[in-house]
Amino acid sequence: MVLLMHTQDQVATRRSRGLKLCFTALLFFLSPALSPDLAQFDASLHAQAPAVKAGNWPYFLGPEQTGISSETNLIDDFPREGPPLLWEKKIGTGYSAPSVLGNRLVIHHRPDDDGPGKEVVECVEADSGKVLWKYEYPSDFRDPYGYNNGPRCSPLLTSKYCYTFGAQGKLYCLTLDQGKEVWHRDCLKDFDVPPGFFGVGATPILEGGKLIVMVGGKPDSGMVAFDPETGKTLWHNVGKEVWDGTSTGWERLPVYKWRGNEKLSSYSSPIAATIHGKRHLLCLMRQGLVSLDPQDGSVNFKYWFRSLLRDSVNAARPVVVDDKIFLSAAYQVGSALLEVNPNGKSYKELWRDPTNMMTHWSTSIYHDGYFYGFSGRHEREATMRCVRLSDGKVMWETDGTSPVAGKVKPNQITGKFQWVDTGKAAPWPFYGRGSAILADNKFIVLGERGTLAIVNVDPEKFGEVCRTSFPQITYPAWAAPVLAHKKLYLRSESHLICLDFAKK
To answer: Pyrrolo-quinoline quinone repeat domain spans which residues (predicted)?
Structure first.
């Protein structure tokens, strides 16, 4: 049942305990009159989100929200010192990747993590880092498990607006040209949202003229569609009526019984896709995957996909390949491949494997019959893997150690790694729970301790071309790289840097 009303009760303040997780899971100089480039970017809010002009990265995980860029003529390798550093900027905490539209870059961060609570939405020139505008609003969020208190969701940019979703569930719409507030909603209060493990972490999307947000509220407000011009609630759905009585496949609890105080939201951003000619809004929530009609929020189908562990989350985004949907999670869940039937209301489970790909937060990338991603709940056990779509077979895996990188050793005083041949600072030898994007037939990999590498796209074997690191990008480097107009942007808890990735 689709619910068209919402509550505004005060959010409960109960704090969850016992979980340790690292997660995530992702501009343009304007005058008040739109520049020619921006005018070409048709971001009509009353139609399906259009194709994005090549080179922009205005959403979480890029123009198609898949971690794949169509840019070409990028560098194929770089020296140990890395590609040229164009500019750097000190920023506050957060795990959100920046977003880029033309020469405007927007970064969402918290300047003083332990001080007076506020989040900052900041717009800079993408090619220089020059500040164009800032917008601040209060946030007294405190992570229950000691991680930073900054925002987790990436900004969403259109030719008119910048949308942000803060760690405390505050949803803002600002003008992209000047950073003026258009509207905002306090989702935790408006929809009676139970406290999340690490605050709010699923980036909203635009689909069919609606701003769609994984709110996780009650009653039946797991997913909410807003009018992107006014912030008015258009529909909301997903809660007891969806999940109560669902078959789980668990021996000790074969049928799920709704208790009334469940968390609904996850850290997996929704994605929309056309399957058999029908638009599906695919939402990997705490309980599992639900497909909704984005126009009215009605349910197409659901699929239970969560850990037996109470202290667990889903964080990687679903990956759509034609009529197939790939899901993956850590916490002893693994991965599954579903095939949607032509009626759009049901599916077949093609395979499920508890160990082949256990994605913690970074979304796997699909290319020519294979998924490439990072598997493992903890840093010490994490590997980059290639998994075949047809049967889920692991083709190769690596912890990131590479013979082409050269020999490194730890400094006995600092504990940091250095090159054996030069004694200079070297990248961390392991990727850990890294992230990757695909562009110009190569992977750009960022390890969680700041190792930046170019990796071949090859299902037969792992092959790293080169690696480097920058002192500004330190652990935890959990935000995925962003590529826009042949520039690579990386963020840490303290810095944002811009690298030149153009082939000369």
So the answer is: 118-397
Query: Residue 391, Cβ neighbours under 10 Å: how many?
Result: 11
Give the DSSP per-residue string, 189-203: HHTTPPPPSSS----
54-500 belongs to which homologous superfamily? Quinoprotein alcohol dehydrogenase-like superfamily (2.140.10.10)
Token pair, residue 140, equals 């007294």
Q: Across the strands, what pairs with 335?
A: 328, 353
Per residue in 57-69, pLDDT tens?
999 999 999 999 9
Are the beta carbons of 292 and 283 closer than 8 angstroms? Answer: yes
Tell me the pLDDT tens digit for each residue of 21-57: 343 333 333 333 333 333 333 433 333 343 456 799 9
Per-domain residue ranges of the chain: 54-500
Structural contact between residues 319 and 272, judged by C-beta atoms closer than 8 angstroms: no
Cβ pair 65, 58 in contact under 8 A: no
Name the CA dihedral angle for 177, 473, 374, 420, rounded to a multiple of 10 degrees. 150
pLDDT greater than 70 at residue 153: yes
Mean pLDDT of 109-133: 95
Phi/psi of residue 189, nearest 5 degrees: -80, -45
User: Which CA distances in Å does 172 have to 181, 279, 397?
Assistant: 7, 26, 41
Distance CA 78, CA 469 (A): 11
Kindly report the backbone phi and psi dihedral angles of residue 243, in degrees, each rounded to the nearest multiple of 5, phi listed first: -100, -25
Query: For 193-217, what is each residue's pLDDT tens digit?
Result: 998 888 999 999 999 999 999 999 9
Least confident residue range of 156-160, 369-373, 392-396, 406-410: 406-410
The pLDDT score that the predictor gives to residue 32 is: 32
Highest-scoring range by mean pLDDT, 189-203, 242-256, 292-306 = 292-306
Encode burial over 123-143: b for 16+ CB neighbours within 10 A, e otherwise.
bbbbbeeeebbebebebebeb
Q: Nearest Cα to 92, choosing from 107, 72, 106?
A: 107
Q: Of 269, 248, 119, which is closest to residue 186 (Cα–Cα)?
A: 119
* pLDDT, averaged across the chain: 90
Interatomic CA distance for residues 235 and 8, integer angstroms: 15
Backbone angles phi, psi at 403, to 5 degrees: -65, -25
- Select from 43, 51, 62, 37 the least CA-distant residue to 484: 62
* Encoded tokens for 412: 């006995």
How crowded is residue 43: how many other Cβ atoms within 10 Å of its Cβ? 19
**239: which 2 tokens?**
């809660």
- d(CA 206, CA 217) in angstroms, rounded, equals 20
pLDDT number for residue 212 = 99
> For strand 452-456 and strand 442-446, is the pairing parallel, antiparallel, or unpaired?
antiparallel
Q: What tokens appear for 340 in the block?
A: 């949607």
